[in-house]
Design a protein that fits this description.
The structure is a single chain. The chain is an alpha+beta fold. The protein has 2 domains: about 160 residues, no CATH class; about 140 residues, no CATH class. Helices cover about 25% and strands about 45% of the residues. It is built from 5 helices and 18 strands. The protein has an 18-stranded antiparallel β-sheet that branches. A hairpin with a 2-residue loop joins strand 7 and strand 8. Helix 4 packs antiparallel against helix 5. The longest helix has about 45 residues. It is elongated, with a radius of gyration of 34 Å.
Length: about 350
């Protein structure tokens, strides 16, 4: 073997890669190009993709708001909103709509700002938060201005017919409430409302005082929706089987508690007709308060108290001295059982166009 063909097998030659063994390949963590991908390229791509998703989510919220306002305008509503503003990056797709106003035949509402929030990690729930001063109007009634510490509605994109509204710290010109919760199902035409610590005007001299500790009701509407609250529209609604069923009503007002249910319809003169039953607790305090306020004469009050005393029984819902009270409102007269109590004011509905 010639000298030229000899292979150097010394350790120094092996270390330089000149021996019989192949040169050692660098470990994966020693590859600078791989670290460039891991530390720079991949994170930058993820951040860019997230930014695009956030932008598209905000654009979708803005587009949906525009569609809803245009749909209301086609139905005869008056709508207005200032230019929306995007915010909330990176974890929240948030669109603020300043100066939102929507007014229809039955209801009108306005808020300084409506904030629409969609959590990027939970994209099935949309929160609508009303901020600043707000106003509400029913039918042709006066516009009521109010504020709230929190006014938030939750809509699930898996069931857009159901809306849950929570209001804390409600303050109006003639009322307050520490908490109000309203759940509306537009498909089933039902609503559930619960309020706590409702403050009413003291100058009304209400028999049971100005503070209602608890008020709640479940309501179902039959006969379809109402386009407006004019006499012609109410006549059509009544003639097509229109009625309101209240399977649950609950009230805690001073020493008086009651739970019950009722059904509301309209008579030939478009006056309310009610038929229902209440489980009443604290009836003595109620009778005394009505007599003191002049709403009930002493004679009928004594007779009513005697009847209630014979029927009183304990109840888990309304206390130890509770009675089941059937009541009706017919021909503008409120009767408990067969005993007429008071006259109900006549409602003059707008004539419409």
């Amino acid at each position: 073997m010639t000298t030229e063909n000899k292979i150097d097998r010394t350790p120094a030659a092996r270390k330089k890669g000149l021996g019989t063994d192949q040169p050692t390949r660098p470990r994966w963590w020693r590859r600078p190009l791989l670290w460039l991908w891991v530390l720079v390229v991949v994170p930058a791509g993820l951040i860019a993709a997230h930014a695009v998703l956030w932008y598209l989510a905000c654009a979708q919220i803005t587009a949906q708001m525009t569609v809803e306002l245009r749909n209301l305008a086609r139905q005869g509503w008056s709508t207005y909103a200032d230019t929306p503003v995007r915010s909330g990056y990176p974890w929240m797709a948030e669109v603020t709509v300043p100066g939102l106003r929507a007014a229809g035949p039955l209801i009108g509402w306005e808020t300084e700002r409506l904030v629409v929030r969609l959590a990027m990690l939970r994209p099935t729930d949309v929160r609508l938060v009303a901020e600043g001063r707000q106003s509400l109007r029913f039918g042709d009634g006066p516009t009521v201005h109010y504020t709230a510490a929190r006014a938030e509605a939750l809509i699930s994109l898996t069931n857009t017919d159901s809306v849950a509204l929570d209001i804390d710290g409600l303050v109006g010109p003639q009322f307050t409430a520490s908490n109000l919760r309203l759940v509306i199902d537009r498909a089933a035409m039902t609503a559930t409302a619960d309020a706590r610590d409702v403050g009413l005007p003291a100058n009304l001299n209400l028999p049971l005082g100005p503070t209602v500790a608890r008020l709640g009701a479940d309501v179902a509407l039959f006969g379809g929706g109402l386009a407006d609250v004019t006499a012609p529209a109410l006549s059509v609604w009544r003639d097509t089987g229109g009625r309101v069923e209240v399977p649950r009503v609950a009230l805690e007002w001073g020493a008086v508690k009651f739970v019950g249910q009722t059904q509301i319809a309209l008579d030939a003169k478009l006056q309310p007709e009610l038929t229902g039953k209440l489980q009443l607790g604290g009836y003595q305090a109620l009778i005394e308060a009505l007599v003191s306020a002049g709403n009930l004469r002493p004679g009928p009050a004594q007779a009513l108290g005697g009847v209630f005393g014979l029927l009183a029984r304990p109840s888990d819902a309304t206390g130890p001295n509770s009675v089941d009270v059937p009541f009706t409102v017919r021909d503008r007269g409120l009767s408990v059982g067969r005993i007429p109590l008071l006259r109900v004011p006549e409602i003059a509905w707008p004539a419409g166009k």
